[in-house]
Design a protein that fits this description.
Elements: H1 29-65, H2 79-115, H3 118-131, H4 136-162, H5 179-203, H6 207-215, H7 220-231, H8 233-249, H9 252-255, H10 277-284, H11 291-320
Helix pairs in contact: 1-11, 2-3, 2-5, 2-8, 3-5, 4-5, 5-8, 6-7, 8-11, 10-11
């Protein structure tokens, strides 16, 4: 007579060796509240984003399908020919700001995280965080009233000695209110957020990586090149793209420096400058009516698409570096 034994936890009648079915974890009330709140927050963000997109599309339809001869903003020209100079100005100003701000932000972040004494690093960190909270209108007032006149002699020097370069050709502006000034103001605005993010990413570099590089005889700068910068590459890209997103959507700082001229030019020092979509909307919206309002909302839709595309590219770049971690 043979007897069968069952393992502890195996259901009665099940053959020996059958794995125990997984048990559902008992959720505590706090876990359910937290998961529900997180799910609700994520859903709210998606609903809000979808609502904004639907609003822009619906309100923009008259600008695409209506008669442009009755549109006091388009004045008979097509919508694409009207919006293209503003798209160029938006991307051009943001790109210049990003090129100027990125190396400065990385340098400041490296100084705070790896070179400055602890007390000085703490003070600089607080100052950087406070600069990120300064309203954009303050930067705009400073850029238009103080910073622009200060740059006039520098622009004259650039035109005199580097005027053979197309970027610095043309007659320099006597007021200093140029696309380069607006870009430099944007660079100052995005500098704090880039610096703060890069600093936190640099501080997360595994200490074992840094100590291993120093133990092999590397100098501090060589250690940063071999251990810190490769580890923080995706974080630096994220910081740059986040700053670029803010520069693309900035309104008041550019509005107070540039005039709404719809043209395409690469000259940085002249008084005839391209302007950005947000600045054009802010300056033209008070006098807009009927289909003109739809036209300005349509330009906002284009800005929404450009910003969304920039963030999508940033996510793709970051995901390519996702396999690099402190455990590798």
């Amino acid at each position: 007579m043979t007897t069968t034994t069952t393992e502890p936890g195996t259901p009665a009648g099940a053959p020996a060796g059958t794995p125990e079915p997984p048990r559902r974890a008992v959720q505590r009330p706090g876990d359910r509240i937290f998961s529900g709140t997180a799910l609700g927050a994520g859903t709210t963000i998606l609903i809000t984003l979808a609502a904004v997109a639907v609003f822009l599309v619906v309100q923009s339809l008259p600008a695409f399908s209506g008669d442009t001869s009755d549109n006091h903003i388009l004045r008979g020209e097509s919508f694409l020919s009207y919006v293209w100079p503003f798209v160029f100005g938006t991307i051009w100003a943001a790109a210049i700001a990003l090129v100027v701000a990125t190396p400065i932000a990385i340098g400041i972040a490296l100084f705070i995280s790896h070179y400055a004494p602890r007390r000085l690093a703490a003070v600089l960190g607080y100052v950087i965080d406070l600069l990120a909270a300064v309203p954009s209108v303050v930067f705009g007032l400073w850029g238009g009233l103080t910073f622009a006149p200060m740059l006039v002699p520098f622009y004259t020097w650039l035109n005199t000695y580097l005027g053979w370069i197309p970027l610095f050709s043309g007659q320099p502006s006597g007021t200093g209110k140029t696309i380069l000034t607006a870009s430099l103001v944007l660079a100052v605005m995005i500098l704090p957020i880039m610096t703060a993010i890069c600093r936190e990413v640099f501080l997360q570099t595994p200490k074992l990586h840094e100590e291993a590089a120093l133990a092999l005889g590397a100098t501090r700068w060589e250690m940063i090149k071999m251990a810190v910068l490769p580890f923080a590459r995706s974080g630096m890209v994220s910081a740059a793209m986040l700053a670029l997103g803010r520069a693309l959507g900035e309104t008041m700082a550019v509005t107070m420096v540039l005039s709404p001229l719809g043209l395409v030019t690469f000259e940085l020092l002249t008084s005839t400058n391209p302007t950005t979509i947000p600045a054009n909307i802010a300056l033209r919206f008070p006098e807009a009516h009927d289909t003109g309002i739809s036209t300005l909302i349509a330009t906002g839709l284009i800005l929404f698409i450009v910003t969304f595309a920039v963030n999508a590219v940033a996510r793709w770049i970051v995901s390519r570096r996702a396999e690099f971690s402190g455990a590798n």
